[in-house]
Structures are given as C-alpha cells and as structure tokens.
Specification:
The protein is about 80% helix and about 0% strand. It is mostly helical. The chain has two domains: about 400 residues, MFS general substrate transporter like domains (Growth Hormone, Chain: A), CATH 1.20.1250.20; about 55 residues, no CATH class. The longest helix has about 35 residues. About 55% of the residues are buried. Its main location: membrane.
Length: about 475
C-alpha cells in the first residue's frame, strides 16, 4: 500500500525534470498524473468486488504483478507515449492491489483489538504516504534521476510478492456466478473513469462552467445512474446495494470524500506556498511535511488502536476532524513573508495529530457495517471515495485558488500577495469541507458495536466478527 500511495505523489516532485528530459509541453505534462488517476479511480470499485468473487489473495497478487511490471516500463520509458501508457497500466495494477487490502485486514484479524491495530497501520500508510512521497521524490530526483522514482518499486514489489505468497492465507471467493454482472462492470468503469477524467481534465483546465465539463459530467452521472438501476434489478449484481443500508458504510464514505477533499488540496497548495512564496526546493518541501508523517505514524500505529478500543471509533474520529479544521484555518494566516516555525509548523503538527486520530477510526467505521462476504467491496468503496474525494477536492480548490489569484493580480496586487491570498481562499474552503464532514459524522454514523450487531442479524444471527477472536 505504501508503494502505491507513494507513487501517486512521488511523481509530482519529478515532473519538471521529466518535462525537460522527454519534451512534454505544459498541457501534456499533466497526463503523467492523470493517466494513473483515471485507471486507478475507475477500477477500484470493480477490483474490490472481484476480490470477493475470485479471492482477495488472487486479485492482490495479480495487481502487484501488473503494478511492478508497469513500474519497470515507466522507468525505462524514453518517450512521452510509452510513459503515459505505462502510467495508465500502473493505475490498473494499483487499483487491483489496493482495493482488496482493507478487506483482507478485517477478515485476517477477527480479534477487535488486533484489527484496530492493523487498521491503524493501514490508515497511517494510506494517509501519510503522500507526505513521504514528496520527500522520497525529492531525494531520488536530486541525487540520482527521475527514472529511479519508478525503479524503486521493483525490489519492493518482488519482496512483497514473495512475502505475500508465504503469509497471506488462501481464500476462496464467492465465484463469478455470485456477481458476474458484465453490463454493470462496463457501466461503473465508464462512469468512474469518465468522472475522474472530467475532474482532472476539462474541469481543471477549462473551469467547472465550461460546456465540455458540464457535458462530460452529465454523461458520467447518467452512467452512474444506469449502474445503480442495473444493480437494483440484476439477479447477480456486481455491487449489492444492500451494503448502503449500513449507516456506517454510507456515512463513513461520505465523511471520507469531504475530509480527503480538504486535506489533499492542502498538501498540493501547501507545497506550492512553500515553493513559490517561501522559495523551498523539493527536498525542503519534503522535510517541511515530515511532522505530519511522524505524528500520523506515532498515533496511527501506537495509539489509535487503544483509543478506538477505549472510546469507540466514532468518539475518536470527531476530535481528529476538529483538529484538522483548526489546522486549515491556521494555514489561512500564513503571510507572504512567513516563517516555517511560526506559520507552517503549527499547521503541520495539528494536521498530523488530527489525521492520526481521524483516519484509523474512519476506516474502522467504514468496515464495521460490511459482512465478510462484502469486505472486498467495502474496501474498494473506501478507496474509491478517497480517490474521488482527493481528485475532486484538488480540482475545486486549485481552480478557485487560481481564479482568486488571477482576479487580484488583474487588480494590480503584487504577484506573491495574489498567490498567497488565492491559497488562503482554498484553505478556508478546505476547512468548510471538513466541517461538513463533522456534520455527517454527528448525524449519520453510529457506534461500530451497533453496526456489527446489525451485520450479525442480517447474516442470520451469526456474529460477523468475533470480539474475542
């Protein structure tokens, strides 16, 4: 999971070097990132369900093989076309692998305390890996060359495969007959891929009110509506809609969309603030975000399991979201002549603490309402909501920030001040998104014990998870 999350951000640091080396134009350069995002976001939900049907271990190993092979192709690429196609293939492998990981965790760890600890490790990697990617990208690009941001995946992938073959238990899926819904698969892939493309392409480049954006967005929503209608009537649905009867599954994914939308935008625009306003280089930016990673790691790995077991996941989630809101509001006060210790470090500390509390608890809630038979689907849904939330948040915040900057610059404001004010607007909107997430958490989410009881009753009275192992 760390390898996949790293790959989503490590490329950003190396983009200028790749552009110079392979001759990308400014507009075509974005497709190094977009090709990965479209394949990854478009296939997550299907990949999670395939894990339930064919076996999560099988899908995990297949995705790992695709991702590692595509990483080699990316590293060897000497032309624009080869790199973009290889990045798209990487996205396919990343979706297959990451979609089933959380589902494997909840079935491999039936004991509530061990499961909470494992989910804490997963949440740390999935959330803090982006900050690690900024640091790793800076180190590899500056000390060797950009090819190694992809080559580094190969020994990691091979080692992971060898360990997975020994340690992951074989699981028998439900069989394709339990959900071989080909029309549904085509509809959901089309809806999600087109939706992600609309967000990272026309919306980011032409604006949200552009005809292309509105047209493609409407088609994406129509495909999604057709998929839901199909699943409601199919004899063997790809995505049984019963999963959304769980308040925690539906609510946790909505909280994830809103909170990730706010945080992803801050990682991106915060990096730009450090680069364009404070004049940090790639390595310095990576170190600037290091407190986020360290705090998230400490809380997620060492303390989140204890807090969730002591107070419950919902009670642990809410203070974490509040700290994230405070951090975002604090970032709106970072000035043009700001200093790291006074204006950036407090934000990083609060972000790391808040995320370290919130995201492990959120993962626990998202999986507490899923039956073991739907664990892969629930896992894929969690990853899909994070991906869509990140892409949507980044596109919205970046667009509004740029519009604010252009408006102020057109009115005669100094360039640095116009940029900073644009970032401030984005941080305020990000804070608003997380406040909305708090509202959803308060009104929709229920204690995970109650959610598991509902799952047990739906399964015919048999406990879905054994608290005593």
């Amino acid at each position: 999971m760390l390898m996949i999350v790293l790959d989503a951000t490590v490329v950003n640091v190396a983009l200028p070097t790749i552009q110079d080396d392979l001759g990308f134009s400014s507009s075509s350069l974005a497709w190094i990132v977009n090709a990965y995002l479209i394949a990854f976001g478009g296939l997550l939900l299907l990949a999670g369900r395939l894990g339930d049907l064919l076996g999560r271990r099988t899908i995990f190993l297949a995705g790992l093989a695709v991702f590692t092979t595509a990483s080699l192709a990316c590293g060897l690429a000497e032309s624009q076309g080869v790199l973009v196609v290889a990045r798209f293939t990487q996205g396919i492998g990343g979706a297959l692998t990451s979609a089933v990981i959380l589902g494997m965790i909840v079935t491999m760890f039936p004991d509530a305390r061990e499961r909470a600890r494992a989910i804490g490790v997963y949440a740390f990697v999935a959330s803090a890996g982006g900050a690690v990617g900024l640091l790793a990208g800076g180190v590899l690009t500056q000390t060797i060359n950009w090819h190694w941001i992809f080559f580094i995946n190969i020994p990691i992938g091979l080692g992971t495969a060898a360990y997975a073959l020994r340690r992951l238990p074989r699981d028998r899926g439900l069989g394709l007959g339990a959900g071989a819904d080909i029309p549904g698969a085509v509809l959901i892939i089309g809806a999600l891929m087109l939706g992600v493309y609309t967000i990272v392409g026309p919306a980011a480049q032409d604006g949200w009110g552009a005809g292309t954006t509105l047209g493609l967005g409407a088609v994406s929503l129509a495909l999604l509506g057709a998929f839901i209608a199909r699943e409601a009537t199919a004899a063997t649905p790809l995505m049984p809609l019963r999963i959304f009867r769980s308040r925690n599954v539906a609510g946790a994914n909505l909280v994830q969309v809103l909170s990730v939308a706010g945080m992803f935008g801050v990682f991106f625009l915060g990096s730009l603030y450090l680069q364009r306003i404070l004049r940090y280089d790639a390595l310095e930016i990576g170190f600037a975000f290091l407190p986020v990673t360290l705090l998230m790691g400490t809380l997620s790995v060492r303390y989140s399991e204890r807090l969730v077991m002591r107070f419950g996941a919902r009670t642990t989630l809410l203070p974490g979201l509040v700290l994230i809101v405070v951090a975002l509001v604090l970032f709106t006060r970072a000035p043009v002549g700001g200093g790291y210790a006074a204006h950036v470090l407090p934000t990083m500390v609060l972000l790391g603490t808040g995320a370290g509390l919130a995201f492990p608890a959120l993962m626990t809630l998202a999986m507490s309402g899923a039956t073991p038979q739907d664990a892969g689907l629930a896992s894929g849904l969690v990853n899909t909501s994070a991906q869509v939330g990140g892409a949507l948040g980044l596109a919205v915040l970046a667009t509004l920030s740029a519009s604010r900057t252009d408006h102020l610059a057109g009115g005669g404001a100094p360039s640095a001040q116009a940029l900073t004010d644009g970032y401030h607007l984005a941080f305020w909107i990000a804070a608003g998104l997380v406040v909305a997430a708090i509202g959803v958490a308060l009104t929709v989410l229920e204690p995970e014990a109650r959610a598991r009881q509902a799952v047990a009753e739906e399964a015919g009275g048999r406990p879905a998870y054994s608290e005593a192992g």
